[in-house]
Amino acid sequence: MTIMAELYGKLAHVPYERKDVSNYMASIDTAARKNNDMSKLLAQFEEVKVHDPEFFKKIDLDHDDRVRRIFWVDGPARAAYKKYNDCLSFDATYMTNCYSMPFAPFIGINRYGQSIQLGCGFLRNEQIEDYVWLFEAFLEAMDGVQPINIITDQDASMRSAILSVFPDCCHRNCRWHIMQNAQGVLGNDMAKNEPLRLEFNATIDYSMTVEEFETRWAEMILKHNVADNTHLQDIYDMRASFVPAYFKDRFFPFLQTTARSEGFNAVLKRYVTPHHSLSHFFEQYMKLQEKIDVAEDSNEFKEEDKIFRFWGEWPLEEHAFHVYTMPIYLRFRAELRKVTSYNATHVAGQIFDVVPVAGSVFGYGKRTYRVEANSEEGIYICECSKINRDGLLCCHALRVMTQLGAVNEIPAHYILPRWTVPPDDIIPEKVELPPMPTDRKLSNKERKLLRYGTLCNNWTDYAKIAAESEKATALAEKYMRELGKELAAMKISAAAKRKDKKQPSKNDGVTPETEIGGDGGQGSSTQYEHVRDPILTTTKGRPEEKRKKSGLHLKASKPQKCRGCGSAQHSTSECPSKITPAPEQKEFDFFRDMV
């Protein structure tokens, strides 16, 4: 609007408001997508499938060939489901597209405790047959593997469809939704009776077994004389679908509600609005999936600039730091800190009571927990069952371990693989180094190959570390560029030195005075003026005139004449007019003729 105000002179002269601009843009989008949204969406599916062969889609049409139900899931999500099918959160939400079709995502939890999307669907209606179709499409995409545990909101159609399609799955309802619904009808009664409210919450949250819940609920009803309260009776009737005591041995890590689904929907609404088409939604979905992948890849490096310090001095904490991913380690450390909130009392045999030091402990209330410990076999069983519910040891078991002196390592059978640091998916290829000879020195070629192989192996290790995050990769590339510049400068400098060595200077070489006199060039050149050139050295072997000749050389083709005087009696080298033999040469010729 600021730009429009400048165009019209001032803001008061602008003939429309911001909402008018928004409505006009929405009308343009509606006109643009009219009659071609589905064709564009299907074209996007085919384009994605070219780069992602594992991409899965399924569409259901009505009698007018209009889309009634649709489901898709990308290849990486299908691969992730094979590792994280132990717990799903499922919920349906509106306000995501111009058709008012409820969006139904399947949300899982990865090894970092992050929410990941494992497929999504759109339904025209929320009847049982719609959810059955969606769950069957999900099951088809995941090669028939049912989820082990699933949590949804309090929807009867969902429950019926889950019982039909996922019969082996443990289905749990969201505690928050049920309590919110109860708030509307029980809020007035609870506000007038604070002791009832506190006991009601404690009975639901901190009953460790079904038997304990039943006992405490009956005592609460009798104590506060609320047996005629029909709303409390309705909550009691649905107890098996949401009360934690009924699911204490099932894997629902760090959740009792569908908050992960709702949180994911909230993030998704930053990318799309109710006015957008499904093709636009799919574009934003792919961007969001990419963001999730990047967040997972960089999770271990998000605090790399910080100096990390352990909370205590226990070897147990250091072991957890090296075993678990960073977010899971932080959760374990929070549990470890709660150890200081309890005292452990030996009851009998291998039984210990873990009692709060003072007041209430967050997440566990004021109650005492019983732990059965067998330190020899590394077995610690707490009635809170956190190890089954979250896959981590609870503070009560850790407190007993501390008292028994078992503080060095977490027992291997209590380390859930899905929470551990992922195995290396990059296997560096090592260069094979040349063998080291023992009977001789390495040649220049062997030394060069040895240096090359050692550098390649070292840099491969660095590359593996740098590839873990974008920040580490940028750092490695920065130093590689600087190293490249220094090596290039070194190469240029070495080439210049070799060039200088090849160009002789005025004083290069050894003077006759230096070589003969041996006095470093201090001798005089006049004292060697009588020195003459050496004579031709006679080689060993048969004299030339006695050498046997082949048939080609027995007779010359024509007589040879001296080029100096023209005589045929001698050659040019023996011409008397050209050579005057020295006395010592005559003596040599005499002895030669005698041979």
TrEMBL record:
Keywords: Metal-binding, Zinc, Zinc-finger. Residues 495-581 are annotated as: Disordered. Residues 548-561 have a biased composition (Basic residues). InterPro entries: MULE_transposase_dom, Znf_SWIM. Residues 369-405 form the SWIM-type domain. One of its GO terms (molecular function) is zinc ion binding. Transmembrane segments: none annotated. It comes from the Eukaryota. PANTHER family: OS01G0519700 PROTEIN (PTHR47718), PROTEIN FAR1-RELATED SEQUENCE (PTHR47718:SF4). This is SWIM-type domain-containing protein.
